[in-house]
Amino acid sequence: MVVRMKCSFCKQDAIYVRPYDKSALCIAHFNEKIIRRVQKTITKYKMFVRKGRIAVGVSGGKDSIALLDVLTKVEHKFPESEIVAITIDEGIEGYREEGMKFAKKHVERLDLEHHIFSFKKDFGYDLDEIIRILGERGNEREYGACSYCGILRRKLLNLAAREVGANVIATGHNLEDEAETILLNVIRGDTLQLGRLDPHPRKIHETLIPRAKPFRLTPQAEIVMYCYINDLEYQEIQCPYAVEAFRGIVRDFIFKTQEKQPMLCFSIVRGQDKIRPVLQTVKATKTLQNCQKCGEATTNNLCKGCWLKEKIESIEQ
Ligand SMILES: [Zn+2]
Ligand SMILES: [Zn+2]
After folding, report:
1. Cα-to-centroid distance, 22 and ligand 1 (Å)
2. What is the pLDDT of residues 240-265, one digit of tens each?
3. What is the pTM (predicted TM-score) of this model?
4. What is the number of structural domains in the chain?
5. Which residues surround ligand 1, an ion (CB under 5 A)?
C-alpha cells in the first residue's frame, strides 16, 4: 500500500494512512506508534510485573511474530524482565512445519529461549489423529476441529508456561480478534464469559498462569504492515481446519462493517471495558476446582482435555 502523502508528524513520505483517524505515517513514525500503543496497552491493563518472566506464544503467524518483535523492543527498557518463546506443535500435516520454521527463525534472531511442546508428546495424539478418530463433523463429530484444538492448545500453553516458570502468558490476539470474541459472547448471551474476558492478567486459579494480549488495541492491518516494513517473514497460509469455524461468520461481519465504520472494533472493545465492572459483579454458578484426573483447573469433575482423552480412548478400544 504505497500512498503519495507526507507523514503527519514529519517531512518524510507516508507509507500508511490509518483509516480511523486519517493519520499519515512514515516508516519511523509508524513503528514508533505501534510500539508506543503496545506500551500504553501494557500499562493501562497492568499486564506485566517488573521482574517478570513473560512467556510469548509463538505460532509463526503474523500476530505472534510481530508481538515477539515488538515486546523485545518494549521490554528492552526493563532488563529485569525476561521474554521466553513457547510454540505448540498441534500436529497438523502440511501446515505446522512452516509455522515452526518461522517461529524458530525469529526466536533465534532475537536470541531468546524457545520451548516447544507438542500434542503428541503431552496428550498422546496429534490433532490430525484426533480428528481422524472422532470422524466427520456432523456425523460422529460434534464440534469443529478448532474447538478440540483450542481445548488442548490452551491447556498445553498453560502447562508449558508453568513449566518454564513464567508468571504471565502473552498472546498475539489483535483488536479484531478481541472484538470478535466479545461479539461471539454477546451472540451466545454469555454475560459471565463477557465479564471474564478481562485484559488485566488475573490469577483465577492456582494452576492457571494469567494471560495478556498486548495487541488488544492494535488493528490487524497495522500488524501486517509492521511485518512488511520490518521484513518479518511469517506463515501466510491458513490452517486447513479453519473452514470449519463458526468464527468466520462474525469475522466477515467485522471486516465488512469496518470498511464503512473504521472505529467499529475500538468501540466494541472500549464498550466491553466500560461494561466489564458491572458484569463482574454477577456471581458464577460454577466455581473452579481441580480436575480429578490431571489436577488442572475446571468447572467440572474432568477438565475438557481429560474429557477429550477419555472420548478418544473409548472410540479407540
Ligand atoms: Zn514521520
Ligand atoms: Zn484434566
Report:
1. 14
2. 888 766 667 899 999 999 999 999 99
3. 0.93
4. 2
5. 7, 9-10, 12, 26, 29
